[in-house]
Design brief:
mainly alpha, 298 residues, Regulator of Vps4 activity in the MVB pathway protein
């Protein structure tokens, strides 16, 4: 009888604990959705302003500035898409929470969409610092699935189950010219701006030339630096030669024997000093070339 009471108490405690965890998890999911709504409105407002700015730049035929703004607009679009995914995954977890609590020790027994939702939220928590509720949610999920599951999805290790589209949306670092071109053309069509494809092609050609020019400038700078190093070594060699002649002259001054082929120390010193000054001027001229090149790029 006592054993029965003990088992009954343990089961009651476990059930109470699961209910508390479920309630806490549901509360966090609601907080995430509430904060997501705010962030989506804020991001949407920023995107509308960016599109209006790009349209104004296109009207003024400032294509380069328009393309630069299109880069940030693309990133904002990816982030907004990620917000939509996070919201969907939160709803998926909320509707399957009892099932998750019962089968969290065995991932194979959970539906694929539930595992993907949990994995994607773990990854999103490491990328979306503007949603602190996700980190609180992460601590709850960690108790269900453990640290290894968290690390695999957070760091995108082999075998992670994070949604591929979310990876793209939250890992956008560079934006291709094609993506920027698509956005700029889309905005120009929305505002009925008659910008022919020649304008965009001309811009892309200019960008390509500037990149090639930058590469050429870097090569010139590298050659100049290499030549400067050679001149510097020549200067050091001249210094050592002068010091060596000084030592020889000192030893010869104390001796009564004069070598008939030994050159005059003062003449050699004057010649070497002249060469050293010429090399020093070359070094100074190289410095001015490098500074001018840096100023032009800036």
């Amino acid at each position: 009888m006592k054993l029965f009471n003990v088992l009954h108490g343990v089961l009651a405690w476990a059930k109470s604990s699961r209910i508390k965890k479920a309630a806490k998890c549901n509360a966090l999911l609601k907080q995430v959705e509430s904060h997501l709504s705010i962030q989506k409105k804020r991001r949407g407002s920023m995107m509308r302003q960016s599109r209006a700015d790009i349209a104004l730049l296109l009207q003024n035929h400032q294509l380069q500035k328009a393309f630069n703004r299109a880069k940030q607009l693309h990133k904002d679009q990816c982030l907004l898409s990620a917000y939509d995914q996070i919201e969907q995954f939160c709803r998926c977890i909320a509707s399957n929470l009892p099932h998750i609590q019962s089968h969290c020790s065995s991932l194979e027994s959970l539906p694929g969409d539930v595992i993907e939702a949990v994995s994607s939220l773990v990854f999103a928590a490491s990328k979306c610092g503007e949603l602190p509720e996700l980190n609180s949610m992460l601590r709850v999920l960690r108790k269900y699935f453990g640290y290894l599951f968290e690390t695999a999805n957070e760091e995108l290790l082999k075998g992670n189950l994070v949604n591929s589209k979310m990876k793209q949306n939250l890992c956008t670092r560079s934006v291709s010219d094609d993506q920027k071109l698509r956005l700029v053309k889309e905005i120009s069509e929305e505002h009925n701006l008659q910008l022919g494809i020649q304008d965009f092609g001309q811009y892309l050609s200019t960008v390509s030339k500037s990149i090639n020019g930058s590469n050429g400038s870097n090569q010139v700078k590298q050659k100049a630096v290499q030549k400067g190093k050679v001149l510097f070594e020549d200067c050091r060699s001249l210094d050592s030669s002068i010091d060596k002649l000084k030592r020889q002259n000192g030893r010869c001054s104390n001796s009564t024997h004069v070598h008939p082929k030994l050159p005059d120390y003062e003449d050699v010193r004057a010649k070497l000093t002249h060469v050293k000054l010429v090399l020093f001027k070359d070094c100074r001229s190289l410095d001015s070339v490098l500074n001018a090149s840096t100023g032009t790029e800036g």
